[in-house]
Specification:
The chain has about 450 residues and is an alpha+beta fold. The chain is about 15% helix and about 50% strand. The protein has 3 domains: about 35-155, Sandwich (Immunoglobulin-like), CATH 2.60.40; about 160-265, Immunoglobulin-like (Sandwich), CATH 2.60.40; about 270-395, Sandwich (Immunoglobulin-like). It has helices at about 1-20, 400-445, 445-455; strands at about 25-30, 40, 45-50, 55-60, 80-90, 95, 100-105, 110-120, 125-140, 140-155, 160-165, 170, 175-185, 190-200, 205, 210-215, 220-230, 240-250, 255-265, 270-280, 280-285, 290-295, 305-310, 315-320, 325-330, 335-345, 350-360, 365-380. Mean pLDDT is about 80; it is low at about 1-25, about 70-75 and about 380-410.
Length: about 450
């Protein structure tokens, strides 16, 4: 008899365990499991703002044990105990905070509302569904878990915190200085402002700290964060995002702003000059000289439509083209440049700094410039001699002066002296030859004739 009773007890215990295990799918607890209370999960908010943390009011209502569809009617109702809510995260909706929101007890025929922080991604769809998981206990020993779906519209909403990042065009293969500007455009003070920023690792990396604790921003005030970004040589050709997340309080409300700014990488152009020469190394007033150098692009991208223009100081003029067209210079390539200038006749002796503006287009056809500085030395007197027989490009008259003019002047004077001496020599020779001819003619007359002529005279 004792063996029979023991066997029956064991079978009863196993039966209870088996039934309890089957009930774990939704409701759990010792059998028999009573019906859970009927409840609803609703929200009066229908629209969410993308790129922001939205505080969604979630109302849980304990409807008691009344469920007409199941033929259940119990006006006394059952208390919902240890009630908690959580969001089933998706690509569009994620939890902002610790993820679980505790409500506690909900009496029959009562409702409790809490604000659940839900972050909506900036690329969320116009219509999105949120799965709200609710977990609670009833009658002390029984636990129930369910998921209720809620559908929202998603739109872009303004934030009182405005973010701008400059410059938006950056050079690949370099470290770029960026300025992150935060502006409070609202009517209330932003408090406990914390900012974090990053870029995709394939495109580059932030040099130094990726975060900043700003503190407070009063209405209308601004705050600048200086950041350095290393841009990879193989950064995305079109653009890549710089992502910024800001968390702050307005009053007692916690807000989160997500901002993504597209940065456009371009190849870095770095034009350097070398082999600078002046010919002649020094010149005199009225003289002509040339400036020659080589431009080398040591950057990662080529420069297009390169020109070089001398910004002439007073007393100097261009001789020929200014600017001169250099053409395209690809990366790791060189191009020679020559500018020819003329010194004015009245230019004083001394050393003059001549800026040379190098102008070019980058890969986005944007205009960029760099400068080269050349020192030109003027020496000697102001004596000049103009020579009008030569014209330069475009019919420009060449003014010969200084060393070249002086040489030409002495050459002309020498020619004149030689011509004058030659003329005097020829004239004297002709006179001598004439006198000798007369004497020779007289000598050829017979002696008796000459005696007769003398007696008559």
């Amino acid at each position: 008899m004792k063996k029979t009773t023991s066997m029956i007890s064991i079978i009863s215990i196993l039966a209870v365990v088996m039934v309890s295990g089957l009930a774990m799918a939704g409701t759990s607890g010792p059998s028999p499991i009573p019906n859970p209370p009927t409840f609803s999960v609703t929200s009066n908010l229908t629209t969410l703002c993308k790129g922001q943390t939205n505080y969604v009011p979630i109302m849980v209502s304990n409807l008691g044990n009344t469920n007409p569809s199941l033929g259940i009617s119990n006006l006394s109702g059952t208390i919902m105990q240890y009630t908690s809510l959580s969001l089933l995260s998706t690509k569009s909706l994620t939890v902002a905070g610790n993820g679980t929101n505790y409500i506690g007890r909900i009496l029959p025929y009562n409702s409790v509302t809490l604000d659940m922080p839900i972050f909506v991604a900036s690329n969320a769809s116009l219509i999105t569904t949120a799965g709200i998981s609710i977990n609670y206990y009833y009658l002390t020993y029984y636990e129930d878990s369910e998921v209720r779906n809620m559908t929202f519209e998603v739109q872009t909403c303004p934030s009182q915190l405005q973010v701008s990042i400059n410059p938006k065009t950056i050079e690949s293969g370099t470290i770029q200085n960026l300025s992150i500007n935060l502006t409070n455009t609202g009517n209330s003070t932003i408090k406990s402002l914390y900012v974090h920023f990053s870029v995709p690792s394939i495109d580059g990396a932030i040099v130094g700290s990726q975060q900043a604790e700003v503190g407070s921003l009063t209405p209308g005030s601004e705050y600048y964060i200086n950041a350095q970004l290393f841009v990879s040589r193989n950064a995305s050709i079109e653009s890549f995002p710089m992502n910024l997340t800001a968390t702050f309080y307005t009053g007692n409300n916690l807000e989160q702003l997500s901002n993504s700014t597209s940065l456009i990488p371009i190849g870095g152009i770095n034009l350097l000059s070398s082999g600078l020469t002046l010919s002649p190394t020094s010149t005199t007033p009225g003289g002509i000289f040339s400036i020659s150098f080589v431009l080398t692009d040591v950057g990662t991208s080529g420069a297009s439509a390169v020109t070089a223009m001398a910004e002439l100081p007073k007393g100097f003029a261009s001789f020929g083209s200014n600017p001169v067209y250099v053409g395209d210079i690809s990366s790791d390539s060189q191009a020679p440049v020559t500018l020819t200038l003329v010194v004015g006749n009245s230019t004083a002796s001394g050393t003059y700094k001549i800026p040379i503006l190098i102008n070019y287009l980058n890969s986005l056809r944007q205009n960029e410039t760099t400068m080269i500085y050349v020192n030109a030395t003027v020496v000697g007197s102001n004596f000049t001699s103009r020579y009008s027989g030569t014209t330069g490009p475009a019919g420009a008259r060449v003014v010969m002066g200084g060393g070249n003019g002086l040489l030409l002047g002495w050459s002309i004077i020498s020619v004149i002296i030689i011509i004058a001496l030659s003329y005097a020599f020829v004239k004297e020779k002709k006179k001598h030859d004439a006198h000798f001819s007369v004497r020779k003619s007289i000598a050829s007359i017979p002696h008796w004739v000459r005696q007769r002529w003398k007696q008559k005279t």
